[in-house]
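Help!! Second protein's tokens look totally different from the first
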Amino acid sequence: MSEQEHDLATVPQLLGLARRLEPLRGYMAGALKAYQQQERLTDDALMQRLNLTPRQLARLSVCKRPDSGSSEFGKQVRQIADYASVEAGLVANLLRQVEAVDGLAHAPSADVRTSAGKTWAGTRPGLLAAARDRVEPTCEGASSSEAEGS
């Protein structure tokens, strides 16, 4: 059996293993599943979005997930990328997105009081301020372009 034939025979086995690893945070299969859910992608759409072959997806999925807080993060990402034959930037960006969205989803909520004295129950501090980044008109009847241009 040639190396290519061996790889083709192993892909379904690796994908089966990857499915069993999805619930485990310590593997890339979990990060890929989280990304897939965040982006609402089917399996085929996931491969298309990330420009992966089934072989690349299988190999990427069974890798241990690098710790983004580690000084070895970059080195680990490059090792994973080399093993799976994918771009290191793809791995790093996918992990960053998954961690960012997961961090927002699990951020503690609290009652927030605005400077105007209004209370927003169950608001995540910082998110309210981030949503208000445009200039509001100060004069009655002024359009937003007039207010921004003055």
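Here's the second one for comparison:
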Amino acid sequence: MLTILIRRTDIYKRVLRNLSVKYRKSLQRIIMAWATARHILVSTEAECNELKTQIENGASFAEIAAEHSQCPSGRKGGDLGRFTPGQMVQEFDTAVFNGDVGVLYGPIKTQFGFHLLEVTARG
């Protein structure tokens, strides 16, 4: 009886170990990875570059977003809140989960237009 219990425990441990190895990256993406970001969405690359220059020269990101962004998040200074990989379009995900926190990125072209993006936190 003890031998059967030990074998079942060993099998159970091996199955768990194999599952965790096989799905470790997916689990980390789903469970652990998250980011917060803010963005400004406009229709042309030229406008996006112009706004980026203004922000780099000291203009408030939140004020520029409120005034110019075509996304409803503009009313909140461009804040997108907390999200995980796969919740945003691919171009956004790539920038958010690979770029540095606190850096202004853009123009980033998506199906919606051109974005300026700042990752505000990531975990």
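Reply: Different proteins will give different token patterns, so don't panic. The first strand starts at residue 35 and ends at 42.
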